[in-house]
Design goal:
The protein is an all-alpha fold. It has two domains: about 60 residues, Helix Hairpins; about 80 residues, Up-down Bundle (Monooxygenase). It has seven helices and no strands. About 75% of the residues lie in helices and about 0% in strands. Interacts with HscA and stimulates its ATPase activity. Co-chaperone involved in the maturation of iron-sulfur cluster-containing proteins. Seems to help targeting proteins to be folded toward HscA. This is Co-chaperone protein HscB homolog.
């Protein structure tokens, strides 16, 4: 791999569980050193290098601070590249997805802000449970298929969570 591991960049051991405050403080510290403004008077080559390092740092931080992105990254480090979109071969979760979608539509139609807040809390609990399940099995080669399935569920819940925040903002206006 030509580029350094995202974890190594922040001087962290590769793993799913990480301290978000530690990650953020290391990011801020590193960002100060490679910020393009610090290289305003430097040569064009040094400016370009600083810009590339800054972009790499930002990409690594975005990946590691988001649980589904971090899960996907860990799986990519330990095995073959994962296709971005795979039909979830997961009938019980497909049913759950449809129920969540219907519930979100109903909340949208009824403009029920309290219901949205309750939905958001239930979603957070589901995300925390998925994160914990993934943390337990991601580095076990015998459980890779399970880890991939969990990661895809995490990605769905992350997207749903984003949609819930958008609905909340619309209802707040």
């Amino acid at each position: 791999m030509g580029t350094p591991c995202h974890f190594a960049l922040f001087d962290l051991q590769p793993g799913f569980r990480l301290d978000p405050e530690l990650l953020a403080s290391r990011y801020r510290e590193l960002a100060r050193h490679v910020h393009p403004d610090r290289f305003a008077d430097a040569s064009e080559r040094e400016q370009r290098l600083a810009l590339e390092q800054s972009a790499s740092l930002n990409e690594a931080y975005r990946t590691l601070k988001n649980a589904p992105h971090r899960a996907r990254y860990l799986l990519a480090l330990s095995g073959p590249e994962l296709p971005l979109e795979v039909t979830v071969q997961d009938p019980s979760f497909l049913l759950q997805q449809m129920q969540w979608r219907e519930e979100l539509e109903d909340l949208h139609d009824s403009a029920d802000l309290a219901g949205v807040a309750q939905f958001k809390r239930r979603l957070k609990v589901a995300q925390d449970e998925l994160n914990e399940s993934f943390a337990v099995c991601w580095d076990d080669a015998l459980r890779r298929e399970e880890a991939e399935r969990l990661m895809r569920r995490m990605q769905f819940l992350d997207k749903l969570s984003h949609e819930v925040r958008q609905l909340e903002e619309r209802l707040d206006d």
